[in-house]
UniProtKB/TrEMBL annotation:
SUPFAM superfamilies: NAD(P)-linked oxidoreductase (SSF51430). This is NADP-dependent oxidoreductase domain-containing protein. The lineage of its organism: Eukaryota, Metazoa, Chordata, Craniata, Vertebrata. Coiled coil: none annotated. The keyword NADP applies.
């Protein structure tokens, strides 16, 4: 029996952890947070302290920025952003990039068909080497 939070601030998670410990209850074990190339602050700057202090991990969602990174909305995206996305964005790379983050325990994928699922699952085969 474990539980987690969704879209809570680091302060709210720490408060829930403290109250749970005070009353001998099960504390939260994960935070569900949006995490992708354009939404990085919470997972990379706000939550790392919790990873180390109390062991809370992240279960992230939207590694493809709700389809923005896939080119799904190419007709409505400014050309400058499109060229940037073309250089970096394969679904495999983006999902793998999310997985490599220290506190990320899992990545939730949203797919519309089996081909998309297979492509996204390929991300576990992609490795990023960080100096």
């Amino acid at each position: 029996m474990y539980w987690g939070t969704s879209r809570w601030s680091a302060m709210e998670i720490m408060e829930a952890y403290s109250v749970a410990r005070q009353f001998n209850l099960i504390p939260p074990v994960c935070e569900q947070a949006e995490y992708h190339l354009f939404q990085r602050e919470k997972v990379e700057t706000q939550l790392p302290e919790l990873y180390h202090k109390i062991g809370v991990g992240s279960m992230t969602w939207s590694p493809l920025a709700c389809g923005l990174i896939t080119g799904k909305y190419a007709d409505t995206i400014p050309e400058k952003i499109q060229s940037f996305l073309q250089r970096i964005s394969l679904a495999k790379r983006e999902s793998s990039w999310c997985l490599r983050s220290e506190g990320v325990s899992s990545v939730l994928l949203g797919v519309s068909n089996c081909d998309q699922l297979i492509e996204n699952l390929g991300s576990i085969q992609v490795r990023f080497y960080v100096d």
